[in-house]
């Protein structure tokens, strides 16, 4: 059920910010371990998340403090942990030789999220929205092949590969992250989805900083120094991550998860658009097909949302 129209601009902005953050984070990842690179996102994002919450409350909601149910904190912790696990599983899929299959199966997150939110949250979508989800997932899978010929049978046969298992598991945990965020936002007593999203964001990022930081302190203490040494670039990652997550969380708080995720796949369009027009990289025929499917999926999901919401 859509509770506010803010979900659409928030989701579109989130897709653009995520593409930008990923580009910047690649620079940091070259000098840090997997877990250290993950900590950068949360450690440097926490001050910005707190600043966003305080600034919004001060400027737009000069009202009494929000009422936060204790269950919301538990869901924040679960969502934060799920996101950490999902990111690590994605990196494990990338480490396998069959990078293409792992990436493609990870992008089934939208479909997995739709099914899970239907069962766990009772989110209802129109038939057009479901068709849009399917078109978007197929489009992303085509884009993940990088122009290499790979039919449906190839993907099915590759299901037993470690990269496929890691990819599917990554998509599952990313879907669980979204459900945790959505459920946590229900524990914030307010009529403003932005206020709820920023509150949940600040709590989640703080808990992720503690979880990932404790792991790094116990297992990779030498990487902590490297995390602080990269503060110039890491600060940019933290800012973009907090802004992007604020938009994602606003979308999750005000619209069905599957709808937010399928529209959020405009990130792919932004990424390939920058590669083509800014970096002058040519678009392959398969990439054009994938882009058209992703764009069609977004359009169908929006039309379906308009009819059902």
From TrEMBL:
Q: Does the keyword Transmembrane helix apply?
A: yes
- Give the transmembrane region(s): 43-61, 73-95, 125-143, 164-182, 194-217, 229-251, 257-279, 288-306
Query: InterPro entries under this entry?
Result: EamA_dom, EmrE-like
Q: Which domain of life is it from?
A: Bacteria
Presence of the UniProt keyword Membrane in the record = yes
User: Which Pfam families does the UniProt entry name for this protein?
Assistant: EamA (PF00892)
The record's keywords, sorted A to Z, are: Membrane, Transmembrane, Transmembrane helix
The residue ranges of the EamA domain are 167-302
Task: Name the SUPFAM superfamilies for this protein.
Answer: Multidrug resistance efflux transporter EmrE
Query: Would you name any one GO CC term?
Result: membrane
Specify the protein name: DMT family transporter
Q: Which organism is it from?
A: Sphingobium nicotianae
């Amino acid at each position: 059920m859509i509770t506010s129209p803010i979900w659409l601009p928030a989701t579109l902005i989130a897709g653009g910010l995520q593409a930008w953050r990923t580009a910047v984070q690649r620079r940091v990842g070259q000098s840090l371990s997997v877990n250290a690179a993950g900590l950068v996102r949360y450690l440097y994002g926490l001050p910005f998340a707190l600043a966003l919450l305080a600034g919004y409350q001060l400027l737009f909601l000069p009202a009494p403090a929000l009422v936060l149910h204790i269950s919301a904190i538990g869901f924040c912790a679960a969502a934060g942990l799920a996101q950490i696990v999902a990111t690590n599983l994605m990196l494990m899929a990338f480490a396998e030789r069959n990078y293409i299959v792992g990436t493609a199966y990870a992008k089934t997150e939208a479909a997995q999220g739709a099914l899970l939110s239907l069962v766990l949250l009772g989110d209802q979508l129109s038939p057009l929205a479901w068709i849009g989800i399917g078109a978007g997932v197929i489009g992303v899978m085509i884009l993940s092949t990088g122009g290499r010929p790979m039919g449906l049978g190839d993907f099915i046969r590759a299901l037993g590969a470690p990269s496929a298992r890691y990819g599917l598991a990554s998509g599952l945990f990313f879907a669980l992250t979204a459900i945790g965020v959505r459920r946590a936002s229900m524990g914030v007593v307010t009529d403003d989805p932005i206020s709820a999203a920023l509150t949940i964001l600040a709590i989640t990022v703080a808990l992720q900083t503690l979880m990932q930081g404790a792991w790094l302190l116990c297992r990779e203490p030498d990487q902590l120094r490297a995390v602080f040494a990269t503060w110039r670039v890491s600060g940019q990652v933290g800012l973009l991550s907090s802004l992007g997550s604020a938009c994602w969380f606003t979308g999750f708080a005000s619209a069905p998860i599957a709808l937010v995720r399928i529209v959020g796949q405009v990130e792919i369009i932004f990424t390939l658009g920058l590669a083509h027009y800014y970096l002058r990289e040519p678009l392959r025929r398969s990439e054009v097909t994938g882009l058209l499917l992703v764009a069609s999926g977004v359009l169908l999901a929006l039309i379906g949302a308009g009819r059902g919401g």
